[in-house]
Amino acid sequence: MTRSAAGAERLVLIAAADPRDPSAGETGRRLRATVALLRGMAQRGEAPCQAWLVTIGGTSPDPAFATLAEVLPLEHPGLSCRHLLFADDKGPWLEQLTDALASAGDDDGAVVLHEGRRRRVERFRPLPAPGDEDAGSGCVLPAGGVYLLTGGLGQVGGLLTGALIRRARERGTRVRLALVGRRSPDLVRDRLAALDRAGAEVLYVEAGARGQGPGRAVRACLRRWGGIDAVLHLAADLMGEDFLRFAVDLDAGTIARQCRPKLEGVAALDRALEAAGPGNRKAPPARIAFSSVAVLLGGIGYGAYSFANRRLTEVCRRRPGWTVIHWDVFAAGADSPEGNRATDGRIALGSSVRDGPRLTGEDALSAIDRVLAAGLAEAAVVTMDPAARLARAAGDMSPTLSRVSPSREITPAPALVPQAVVPLALVSPDGPADALEGAILRSWRRRLAVEDLPADANFLAFGGDSLTAVRVALDLRQDLGLPVPPSLLLRNPRLPEFRAALAELAGAAVTGAALAGAGDADPRPSPRDIVADPDQSFPASPLQVRWYHMHPEGYGHLVMPVLLSGPVDLNRLRAAIVAGVRRFVALRTVYSQDGGGTVRGHVLPEDSLPEPVLLDFSAGSAVSRASRLHDWAQALEDRRLDIHRTPPLGLYLLRLAADRALFVLHTHHICFDGWSASLLWDSIAAAYLEAPRPPVADYRDLARWSWRYLDGPEAGRLRDRWRTALADAPPPCRPTPDLAGDPADPIGEKVALALDPATVETLRRRARALGGTLFSLLMAAFALMLARAGGGGDRRSGPPGAGRAAPGADDAVGVFVNPLPVRLSLAGVTTVADLAARVGDLLDLFQSSQSYPLLDMLAHVPALKGKGFNDAFLSYLLYQNYRKPAPMPGFEVAMGEADDEAADPQDPLAAFSARHARLMRPFEVIVFDRADGGLSVNVWYRRALYSRSRALALAGLMEMALLFLARTGDGADPRRFLEETRREDDRAENVCGTDLPRADLPAISRRGRPSVGIPGDDNDFFSG
Prior knowledge:
A 7-stranded parallel beta sheet has the order 8-7-6-9-10-11-12, with helices on both faces. It has a 5-stranded mixed beta sheet with strand order 1-2-3-4-5, with helices on both faces. It is an alpha/beta fold.
């Protein structure tokens, strides 16, 4: 359709009704196919065209297609839509459809139902105003009644409760309110007290509108007051900014999460009221579900929310006793501190009438009385004539929407999306990159009415809100031909961030056209958080509990790149990624905390996972490609995942060249660790090669095992051993800082050094000779380095173990890495053999405790009680020697960041070499195996405490400690290490090198270290 000169004048899509939720299965696929076809029609733009969405055999309009029929004409001029439902699949539906196509008039509505020979057009009609004689007698809601309100402490709930209190007070009685909310009573105590002072008797139930919360509220009402007069279901969740979607950008996941809060609340309330049964001494209560008229009559750009409202209406139609009222914007509105906003004033559903009349709580009560008295199942309450309301909302969308007539016809305007795909050069730093920023600035200046915008302008700070974001998105769709969602701007409100996100979207659009046959790939995987079956829930493991509580501070995000060189079939690899990832339940789990404080995981269906996003980085020079890849990788590092509503997972597939591809996994430690990386890639590789799949284990079983383990005798014995080991231990240690910054500032940087394979082999031989492993030698060197650098001779630091001692854990993707605050005292150590034995004893306890989590230690070991997850120890040594991925025939596979900081900057993996991070501890040394058999030693430090020169010196000291242990004999006195490193301490060559003979040791790389010494305690740390 986009290439044909003639185009298509009409598109008719016919499908059988699907009784299932339209967010899943065949209906979800039908929705995606329909959207793709409608987008193709909208791209033409030069002539009006029609879309007829036909459902055969349904009992009510399909909410997805009814919404498309209503909203698409508002968003795409020249496109008219109609949804037809033929209830009788064996009746004369084909004849009726043919007649409808031949005689369709402009007065037909967007939704038409055929029931036998009857034809019904869905429209709102005005409800006559009551006469003067009825003015005082229309109060259906009793003044002193009992009212159950979900979401009763929100913006609209506050207006309604205030109006109910005033109505009761005017009639000399007292209203009784049962409020259901998710905030703890401590947070709402003042508001509840204010309601009590105003004259209400209040009962508050801390719970969501779903699950068991409504049942508890109903039972409490019946116990206290004997019945309920009305249920007002106001609770909803806009779910971040993803409800802001144009209709043609809808996907099944976005629809599902907008629907779920309202729909499950309706079902939960029905169950609770039915269970109450004879206990309710009043008549069956009125049940009113609150919806929004802003999206029905002009919320252009609110496609997902429009769908949620439509779906709510259909569900309530099938449940007797419910009335749905679509409300206009209320008086508190967008300008109230508690207005209809999701985050920082970004969301303003009612902003389309920001300068018009608004509803009050009294308006709402009057409207409810009239609707209930008239016996309506659905109603819309608007502040002005609907046509005028629509015109006001859409009239300034020009040039996309130039005029709106009362009949809801849209005057044709230029196409939203030009036929040509945006060239990749548009986003290239050495190409015409200013085209993006220029388009952004033109739109911002116009929509925000601000001429002078700084380089780091914040859209929200200049008065932007959700409706303005819709207008900006429409401008950019017009100017750039990109499918810009309004939520992209609200997620990235600063100009540099938004430009980068737009550049990423442009690259995705090109790749979509080249690889997947579509030009609308979203740069972020679309969340599909379908609420899991309760049977799929499980108590999160102790390690997951730790990460759950650290997530709000920004910890836990991971980016894993896998470089694949060879004849890569990208479409086949994309399918293999989907097949490989879906096997692991940990990757499709979301997390919540119940009222008792228990953290639970909820496993979602396999189709809840995002599909890999295809991006094209193959165009331009090598320098340009490397630069764009680096910028993209850094932006991904800064992106934050949501572990509560969607699986914490982003999947990206980048084309680098005809024979080179990069798979990038963005995930979170709550479901992933280093060992998991190889397991996941092996599963993907097997799917790509159509080879036998490696075994997998269910993380839920291992999480349950971990709690049983803590209740068992082995954990009890370890608890006692750790109490003894840490008894009278000194505070945790760290190297002496050389800066006086804020110790709580978590931002860190790193320096790195590389040990070549021959040196590493020498270290391994020496470790075996001392009766240990390379890890034990690293631990000994770490102890010497910390003692020399000011940490003291009796120190507590934190090495982590693989933590995979549970049966089957080796085959499970999930988090198992377990850090423990070990104590190593150097008192009495007189030889290297003594030091090796001391480390061996320590590691014996450490290895025995692989399944004994830090969470339990913080609760039961006296030395750690009152400590947080991040201050049980301040220094950290991690040796990442986890299993490597299996070879992939015909391909070279490289996983993880580049081996060291000296890597070729044009190496794709070099783009993922993190240089900044949020450090949990002030000082960390992370060692990992290099592909050539060497080691990379990465020293991470909080830049508020340590200068880069100090960190380089500490890295050199770690190197020197390793060389000392490798060179000296078993009987050598470790004091010699202290003496050698203290000699001429202010000279870099004596800090970063050594005077020790090293005839049998190959050179270790040392790059540009400054002349900075190692300040430390001159006390004899070996004697106490």
